[in-house]
Amino acid sequence: MATAKLSRAKLPSRKRGGKPDGRLWRRLALGLALVALAGLAASWPHLHALSRVAASYGAKVGCSCHYIDGRPLGDCPKDFEAGMGPVWLREDAATHTITARYAIIATERATWSAGPGCVLEPWKD
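^ thats the sequence. predicted structure below, dont judge the formating
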């Protein structure tokens, strides 16, 4: 019985020297990236809505904490609910406004004034 011997140069998944072909890994990485982007695109409306709610909550709580309770802005995230870690607060002292940003997805503002206290800016859809 005769056996055929394939040389390494004829194997499609190997380069000379026995290293795996980089094209296979690039195609696999591209396929996984496309699947991830499709999943993100499908869930974007839900993710964006939740991000706006989280940013609004952060702005309102931060404004009340800082301007009504008189606490430093850095102390205000202690009042957040669990899972609010990606919310960052920033103050504009001239306008008495607290801006809350949820990751890089949503930004909302709450402004303090005598009388009504801290009021969120209306959402623009």
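The chain has one helix and four strands.
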